[in-house]
C-alpha cells in the first residue's frame, strides 16, 4: 500500500519560514520523481516544485528564489523549505510521487500565511 504523508504545515506570518516534509512508503522512493503541488481556495491545483530521481529541480516562477525542494532517499522523504512566505502562498500543499504510469498523492497539509 502506497502512502505519502505530508507534515510541517501551519500558520506563519508574512516573511516567515516553514519546512514541509513528505514521508513515502510502499514505493521504491529513489526511482520516483517527487513533487509539491498546492491548491488555494477557488483555484486549480498548481505545481510548486519537482525533484527527479537524479536530483534535478524545477520550480514555479512564483516561488523561485524562496522555496527549495530536496530529498533524502535513505529516509524516503522529500522536503520543501519555504522562506519569505507571502499571503499568496496560502494553500493546501500536496506531495506527489510519479513514475511512468504510476502517480500517487498525499492527503495535503495546510499552509496559511497571515498576520
What proportion of the residues is helical, as a percent range?
Answer: under 10%
Tally of alpha and pi helices: 0
Morphology call: globular
Order of helices and strands: EEEEEEEEEEE
Beta fraction of the residues? Answer: over 45%
Low-confidence stretches: none
The total of beta strands comes to: 11
Distance between the termini: 40 Å
Describe this structure in words.
The protein is mostly beta strands and 115 residues long. The protein has strands at 3-7, 10-12, 18-25, 33-39, 46-51, 57-59, 67-72, 77-82, 91-99, 102-105, 109-113. A hairpin with a 6-residue loop joins β4 (33-39) and β5. The model has no long low-confidence stretch (mean pLDDT 97).
Helix/strand layout:
Elements: E1 3-7, E2 10-12, E3 18-25, E4 33-39, E5 46-51, E6 57-59, E7 67-72, E8 77-82, E9 91-99, E10 102-105, E11 109-113
Write a concise synopsis of the structure shown:
This protein has 115 residues and is mostly beta strands.
Core attributes:
115 residues; mainly beta; 7-stranded mixed beta sheet; 4-stranded antiparallel beta sheet; 11 strands; 54% strand
